[in-house]
Design brief:
Layout lengths: L4 E4 L2 E4 L12 E8 L2 E8 L8 E4 L14 E7 L3 E3 L4 E4 L7 E7 L5 E6 L2 E6 L7 E3 L3 E7 L2 E5 L4 E5 L9 E6 L6 E4 L5 E3 L4 E4 L10 E9 L2 E11 L15 E2 L6
Parallel strand pairs: 13-22, 14-21
Antiparallel strand pairs: 1-2, 3-4, 5-6, 6-9, 7-10, 8-9, 10-11, 12-15, 13-14, 15-19, 16-17, 16-20, 18-19, 20-21
């Protein structure tokens, strides 16, 4: 590929160009040559260590793993799940047929979680992620009072820590309607800590599938760091044929 160069005050630069990635590779090796000047570099692709590739809304590769503004395209292996749920999803073709791309609208979204088998990839916008509940089974636009509603089971918990060694000081308390309070040290739960010290805690299986309003509390050394209420409806299936605009559905009470 030949790139036209522009010289400005002894600085060489070129306009942006598109490069077709014909095959999936764990590392893409690039080489720039101008007369006798040769500059090699490489970018991470998709493979054993990196299960995803991110592109911004303009189609430019996201190198640092930080979520861009507005929206993101994510290339994932077929069968992966993504929170929050994508707007567009399509399987790729040819040498990329084992992968699919998704477009996710990032308005009011600070973190995206991709699950591929037992592996979790976490992409965020902020350096420190405040505790939050996240699940692709969230019923957006529908609330129980002021609490989010989730289908099937409790959502997952995400938050940032400074060092992995801190995990031993954290505990999770869940107040269950009609039952005793559940408390678990965090190191006894199914957790994943990524390279940026973001903790992903699966709350699946901690309580039986039961209708109700739950209170999830994160503690450190016995002190409450964060708390949030959420509702769980195990077997509710909703189908909306018309798009809701500036509308809100509120569930104030239900019977199990």
């Amino acid at each position: 590929m030949i790139l036209p160069l522009v010289v400005e005050k002894d600085v060489y630069w070129s306009e942006a160009t598109e490069l077709v990635l014909e095959h999936p590779e764990p590392i893409f090796h690039l080489l720039f040559q101008c007369d006798n000047v040769i500059r090699p570099w490489q970018i991470n692709g998709i493979g054993r260590d990196d299960f995803c590739m991110l592109f911004d809304k303009q189609g430019e590769l996201v190198i640092d793993g930080q979520l861009p503004v507005d929206g993101v395209y994510i290339i994932t292996p077929v069968g992966s799940s993504v929170d929050p749920v994508e707007v567009v999803r399509e399987q790729l073709s040819d040498y990329w047929s084992d992968y699919e791309y998704r477009y996710i609208d990032l308005e009011n979204v600070d973190v995206v979680v991709v699950k591929t088998g037992e592996d979790i990839s976490i992409y965020k916008r902020l350096a420190q992620l405040q505790p939050m509940l996240l699940s692709q089974n969230a019923l957006h636009g529908i609330t129980a009072g002021y609490s989010m509603i989730y289908q099937e089971q409790l959502p997952n918990l995400l938050f940032s820590i400074n060092h992995p060694e801190e995990m031993q000081f954290y505990g999770l308390r869940i107040d269950v309607p009609g039952q005793e309070t559940i408390f678990k040290p965090l190191n006894e739960l199914k957790t994943i800590v990524d390279k940026d010290n973001v903790v992903y805690v699966s709350l699946t299986g901690l309580v039986e599938k039961k209708y109700g309003l739950y209170k999830v509390t994160l503690e450190k050394r016995g002190n409450i760091l964060w708390s949030e209420r959420c509702a769980v409806i195990p077997d509710l299936n909703l189908s909306l044929t018309n798009k809701l605009t500036n509308s809100k559905i509120i569930l104030r009470r239900w019977e199990s």
